[in-house]
Structure of RNA polymerase sigma-70 factor:
Amino acid sequence: MGAFSKYTDNDLIHLISEGNVDAFAEVYERYWSKLYNAAHKRLRNDALCEEVVQDVFLKYWEKRNTLIFSIGLSNYLHTAIKYSVIDYYRKELLKDKYLQVNRLVEAADNSNEEHIYLMDLRRLVEKVIDTLPAKCKTVYQLSRIENKNNKEIASLLNISEKTVEGHLTNALKLLKISLADFSMLLLVFLIK
């Protein structure tokens, strides 16, 4: 039993907001397996669940001075897990859409109309990527073209994983907005 095991969540929240690492370790021990199980119900991937839980704890520690726990620590952590899982699926969905477009480009036959359409789409994607700031563009290319994970990218570029996530989010938002008009044409093309 740790020195903080008899402390209430509210006591631990207060100590953590003051930077007490031991109080944070108690919260980690108290909630890690519960949060892992909550994530595992939705993700069913051990390594991914561990990453999601670690990320939630990391974000909590980074924001410890500014967080207000109106719903209690347990509810806050479980809600953070829920939204982390949602974010994971949202990113996977965007990644899948991008891969589908790439597969379409690669699998297209040589008919002029299809070829021209797909080359225009590829040029549009490349044009959008080229408008990104240099670091954002590099992060996007490492993630989507070279299939590196956030941790690898952060290590390669000497930036935090959070910064990597921010760059990817910005790149994917811009792609989504830029390809919105083109997606209607894609639908017409696929129905043909």
